[in-house]
Design brief:
heterodimer, A: about 450 residues, mainly alpha, 16 helices, elongated, B: about 375 residues, mainly beta, 1 helix, globular, WDR54_beta_prop (chain B)
Chain lengths: ~450, ~375
Amino acid sequence: MLRAAWRALSSIRTQAVTQAPVLGLPGGGCAKLLSVQRDLPSRPGGLILRAARGYATQKPVQPSHEDDPLPSMLLKDYQDIPGIEKVDDVVKKILSLEMANQKEKLKIKKEQLMKKVVENPKDTGSLEARILNDIISTMFNRKFMEELFKPQELYSKKALRTVYDRLAHASIMRLNQASMDKDVLLVTFNHLDAIKGFIQDSPTILHQVDETFQQLTETYGGLSAGEFQLIRQTLLIFFQDLHIRVSIFLKDKVQNSSGRFVLPVSGPLPWGTKVPGLIRTFNHKGEEVRKAEFKHGGSYVAAPKEGSFELYGDRVLKLGTNMYSVNRPVETHMSGASENLAAQTQESIAPNPLAKEELNLLARLIGGMEIKKPSGPEPGFRLNLFTTDEEEEQAALTRPEELSYEVINIQATQDQQTNEELARIMGEFEILDQPRRSASKGDDLLAMMDEL
Amino acid sequence: MFRRERSIPLRGSAAALCNNLSVLQLPVRNLTHFGVVHGPSAQLLSAAPEGVPLAQRQLQAKEGAGVSPPLITQVHWCVLPFRVLLVLTSHRGIQMYESDGSVMVYWHALDAGDASLVQAVFARGIAASGHFICVAKGPNIVLSEELAGHQTPVTDIATEPAQGQDCVADVVTADDSGLLCVWRSGPKFKLLTRIPGFGVPCPSVQLWQGTIAAGYGNGQVRLYEASTGTLHVQIDAHARAICALDLAPEVGKLLSAAEDTFVHIWKLSRSPEGGYIEVEHCHGECVPDTQVCGARFCDPSGSSFAVTGYDLAEILRFSSILSPVQQRKGRPNWPTCYKQRRIQSPTAHRSSPLPTRSCCQHTVSHW
């Protein structure tokens, strides 16, 4: 069944879809589900190759060296530090691209390219918008949708994960909170509404989404509440035991640090549920005899009206709307004067302890060197890190690259002991002239320290 | 009121099914058995009274025809007059084991052939009645005979030991459309009455002293008269779908748990005049950030209960704070005063306003 869907999908001409691997993997995953034999080496490889070939023939991308960054440019991480220009020449040399490896150069180049892409958010002809359009048109392709709508058993985790990896909004939270039957359907409609917002300009894709909408209503609109409960329970089985922390959820406080979701005890009720607290007693004739109240411990409000199941309508439900539409400002504030002696690091959302340790070391080193300078005390410095969040498997990545900002504020400290050592280190730097080949800059520093 | 006791850790987390906890008390050996469903396997563990886990066992759903591993829908201990059996229902069939889960004594495969591919086939709903074990298979109930009474899959079955009279109802079945069917057990089961549900599923039902207590998907608990089917009490109990109901038959306490993280305990009684059923709210407990999926009393007097939540790898236990005299007697004859007592627990405990009752009710009357 899914093989047929995959065949339908792969026969579509896709133009410049950067998510080529996504096309390849579902086929492999689906094939795994259907066939009895466990190993199908040729199938996924063949599909990926075909998709990749399609992509390659459309748009040959040659790595161009014209706009390579200058070797005297500083490393990306250090470019924004105030006062970095006044730093000693030796330090500049260390931190420049001359001594850095290829990866650092690529980072800067990537940043420059990203700036070009992000420059004009209204530009619908830009690469970003085009990619979005392509993804959506692929996903909502009619034949694929038809196959998807045929009733079938739950996919294995692996198969489904590859499909959802880049294209679905995180569903766990919605499943946890959506309780009444039709809530799940409303959430799906919310998703579709948000997708329609992305592709406003392209009528063909809009048409596809509308068709999907109709199919959804046909298939699921007629289901009873109990059947929805069953669907929801089956989906929750799929998500069971996954405690992946998603940074946007942690920021919004809908997920706490253990990975469990926060279930609020207040707020609007689903349509059809009354506010708890009332006990009504009837007699044999059906007349109400008594009304009593009890305290139920939460503070709920009744739903104002039923959500609309039409093509366009007020869904009433907030779940399923685009979480990324809220602007998340990058936090860039100067840390105060170094009154506290301890180095203070703010917890990053998806913590990488090794990275933090490296940064600590770096902070101490650089902080120490700054204080050594006679040109006045620097209270501290701020370090902005742009990292791509690869751990977000469940979050929607409707942009080509996830632009999530994590800020680590490091306050430099006065440390008399390191000063002498630093002077020694700096002396040693003159001798080193071959660039390091180690993976991260932290390793660079540590390796350098080890050699002393 | 109730204070939180030590939790019992599970090897795997609980699945998001209704009625996903079964408790078997063995007072002779001073043990309590707990059964929780985790996807394709069911976990059984036995614990000492203080909650110290003693033994764990995992039972797998038997593979039948089909591609994906079968999922278990319910696990339940059935206490029959001569033996206790553990029943497991899954998408493939019905398995029965000895009470400790050691030996499978019976296996009934569900016929996947007669159901079309469009509908899912599964068994769900287990109860013991007299000498029979009732297990529901989709819309039908499978016993020595098949009882056709439901059009939508059955969710739960409740039974009560027969009172000794002839036409007393002692089996109630509930289904996904909210329909309740009341039966009289015997060599041949007889359908006595039907109570329509208006589309709201009824995931859990209990029977006590001729009163049916049913929990619905819109958070309501309704009490009906079993013989006539008239509605007596309607409680807007929860903000989300109710997933488990349990009864402590000795004292007439009803436990309701829902996905809104709350667990409520109600006291059922019959009014002296008119014989109406009356309900009073005894206690409400909030289990923070937990989608409760199963709740049971741990003993027939209702002094302690256990709760499981979706994706939670432990069984939470609560026990009431009663004076030692009352505990010894087992069945309190004077009003039980519940004190509000907050115990610091490692997990973040949301402080919910608990009802403080100075004197609950008059003496418990004998039926």
